[in-house]
Amino acid sequence: MDDLRPRRVPCTRNLAHAVAAAMLGLLCLGLWGSSAAPGEGEAMWLWQEGEHYTAQRGSTGADRKRAATRGVCLGSGWGASVDHYAEYPIEWPRAADARLILRYAREFAGSATLQVRLDGEPVGGLVGLESTGGWGDDGTHWRWHKVALGRLAAGQHAILLEIEAEASNVNIDGFFIADPRFGAPPDTDALRALLTRRLHETVAAEPVEVRTLLLPPIARKEPVTEYRSLRDTIAALPDDLRYVIEKTARKANCYLLKAFDVGQPTKYASDFVWHDLRKEKAWQLPFGGCLGVVNPNSDLNYLIGFASGGGRARFHFPASPTLHLIDALGYRCSAAPRVEAQVTFIPVAGDTLQVVVALRNTGPGARTVSVVQAVARQPLSLTPSQRYGGVTVTAGRMRWAGHDPGNDVAMAVLDEWTPAADERVGALVATLAASEPSASVTMSDEPNGKPWSDGELGACQVRYEVKLPARGERVVVLALNMRRFSEHEGAPTSRGTVFYPKETEAEAMAESARLAVATLGNDWRRSLRDRIARYRDLPVIALPRPTWIADYYACLELPRANTFSPWGTIKHPYYNFCRAHGHEPYGWWSYGMHGHEHLSTFVTNVTRPELSAFHLRGHFQNQSADGGFPYGVNHQSRPGEHTSGATCPFIAWEAWTAYLWSGDRDFLRDAYQACLRDYGDFWLGTRDRTGEGLVHWANWWETVRDDPDLPTWTLSGGAEKQEALDLNCYLLVVERTLAEMARELGNQDEERAYLAAADKRVRLMNAYMWDARDRCYYGISEIFPDDKVNVKDISTLFPLWAGLATAERADALVAHLQDPASLGTAYPVPTLAKDEPLFGAQWHWHGSNWVEMSWLPILGLQRYGYYDEAARLAEINTRMVFDTIDKISHFREYFNSITGEGVGLYDYIWTAMPAIFITQIFFGIEPTAVGLRVMPALPEGWDDISIGSLKVRGRRVSVRVTRDPKATETRAKVNGRTWPVEGGRGVFVPWDKIGRRVSVDIVQPTRIAEIHQPPWPLPHLDHPRVPPHPRLRDQALIDATRADADRAHRELKK
């Protein structure tokens, strides 16, 4: 290891404190006001955070205050009693006069009384800190108080703050130790800017180090090194499962993560997602194309390479994917001439990867091959470099790297920053271990770069020499652990989760090394078997576009990939919208589940409807006392008294559909009870000011289409002042769904009541919302019920999905969809019609295509018998999503409705919807309460598709659909027997006619005559006569609404 430049460093608690200032800057003893020792003409100062004490009594934990320097301070009860204190170490560079400048906040009247002590001796008299009018959430709450310290000798000192009177509660943001020339910044912004600037200077001046480490001895479990090629493992699988595994290996998606349901549970606080460097196409990466993975949260790359004959390691070489599951990734390649290698990456935990390198020498002579693992980060800057959309990179400079010869582990430590990169909050240690003894450890600026010599550090590379006998085989097991930590309490949290547990550097290093070494003993053969076994839930599918097969499987994987194990208060597995792209704890989109993201359950049902039930139970568990489902739920959620923001009322429909796929009556009973309260107690009880039965939103962000300037909302003076078309379509579906639930549970009286409520809503909406001139439905102002909101958007088509429109009115709605100047864009359905003034093809909800919402019009077309149009839209939307996946290796949040380009966040859970388009529209597979309906609608030009081993209510369903240009009518067989054809298109098979397996074969003619009619019987729209809409009498509300609506109309005309 002559390239290591070793330095003997004992790994002890004292070491951690000795290097703390160099490693963590601001979070340690203090931040100097100069990047070097201050000169004679400069004002000396250092800053000490109040919550970064060495000891304290009285505070229950760091207190979060928005206007504190770091958003946290010493508080939470500190100062209430005379036995409270806080102690801080400081180091002063040279003898000089000094004073302490304390930043504090206190809301209570009167003074807080404390004593300042320097090295145990009191400084001056008692200090009185007057009330500032608040505890620190506002910048005006903070004040400075100065205490002269006298002549301060160079060296280490201790500052002690002691409370001297009861009820002296005070929040301490921090303090300066400074010479008399220094002036404290005037406000929070200036203070933060000063500290950030000095921090960056300090970081730039800090040394980068290479160390030889002495960690505590770590016991090793014998690794599994019996040779078993992954190719042989896959070849031995049952035919259906082998087909799925081989097709998923070819998908374009690049993520790899720890699945929630295999092995140990996921841990929200330490979850790292990886991107395959050979598949990642969205960003130009410094190690793109190498064999390895990159973690977007840290921008840290983990590479596997090979060398022979003592040459340089190769990381970039031809390789073929043999496996790519959510939680396993395998490549086959050549490690050296006549040496085959199979490299398999397995996330055994959210923070730990196991890599199995299986080598086979096919030659007649013995060979020695070097297997290399490396962690690398492009040393672009001191602070994090942001490059991954929707994921905040928090890791900055590689601070040091080292090797422990006793345990044979290598480590690299990187700085960790806040999302704004204005403060270091901790560190990230990456540890490498292997089943083979290391032959060399190299620290360099990049893999295969020059050995480190006081320059930038970018790579830690370990080489292992593996001897292979003639035609022999060997297995090498590698491991990587990633661990975040902070040496101080009060590191920022998100969603109530501590991502930087308080540990010394020594403790973090020891635990990371222990986890990496323990991973070597993981039975990787069993891990692979368990991971592959989960894919028995996926059907076998054949489509005329071969790449669509892998993309279909990618859709089926996405909801499971975005799911976490239960964590915090949530009792069931739950998802974050974009976990598969990268665990992002700082964005709003990463905090949990909404009713509209639950539309992804339509995809989840295809493989695991029990997981759909778990996702939906998150809302059941957190239902408010008033019956409402909260807008979003996550691991912090608790049931509340009132629903301040409601989630979109899709949940009853989603739960009913999950039941239809699973047949789980316990879930159905729970869902029915929860959803009837949400409907009756909440929506009807709190959102109907006029009492006629039509309801309104509470605000624009409840609506799903959460653009406050969307004309659909502004033209009525706000979403809360409108009986919206979309919301009342949702409620109509809820009423019909509750009726079906009641019927299934044997509650006939309740079934009739909900059907009557649905009939009433149908009459009201047709009477008040239909516009005879424009031939479509509009929402209406609740304040001025004669005023329709004359804006065509995606909800214009929701009456098809809800079964609101008559056959004649349905024809008129479809005409809008087929009009290229309106809703018929190249990639429909736009969320705002093209001929509306504020249309933008990729402007969020102002005209882009959101595939989860396009599902409603597609399903509505199918329900009304517009099968060809439904297939056309489903094909366009599927092609739009799949083209994006194949181009950039990711799903996107929404799409440009004219070009089809993806926009917004990556790997968003609801963009998996093409899987249900294919399953329910193309194949026409739809379970009902009494049987299985199969009503296929093939896209233009498709002649043969098949799906097999599809799980429906514990049965395995196979469907094949072909087109015969010579046929004049549809023919069907079920399990080889001729079967009656329904609607000239497909079949219906009662559940009691289906055994454990059912096979459906349908042969259709090229064209099938369509009959367009409502999917439910509609009440007579004129009897009983619908009375005029009730009017509100609140004049202040009327005046304000008119002013808001008039203003919106004027703006729209501009």
Plain-language structure description:
The chain is an alpha+beta fold. Among the domains are: 189 residues, Jelly Rolls; 320 residues, Distorted Sandwich (Beta-galactosidase, Chain A, domain 5), CATH 2.70.98. Helices cover 25% and strands 26% of the residues. The protein is built from 21 helices and 51 strands. A hairpin with a 4-residue loop joins strand 18 and strand 19. The chain is globular, with a radius of gyration of 33 Å. It starts with 7 loop residues before the first strand and ends with a helix. The N terminus is likely disordered.
Global structural class: alpha+beta
- The chain-level mean pLDDT equals 92
- What's the shape? globular
CATH top-level class of the domain at 214-533:
Mainly Beta
Count of extended strands: 51
Question: Helical proportion?
Answer: 10-25%
What labels describe this entry?
Glyco_hydro_65_C, globular, alpha+beta, Glc3Man9GlcNAc2 oligosaccharide glucosidase activity, disordered N terminus, 1054 residues, 21 helices, MGH1-like_GH, Jelly Rolls, seven-stranded antiparallel β-sheet, Beta-galactosidase, Chain A, domain 5
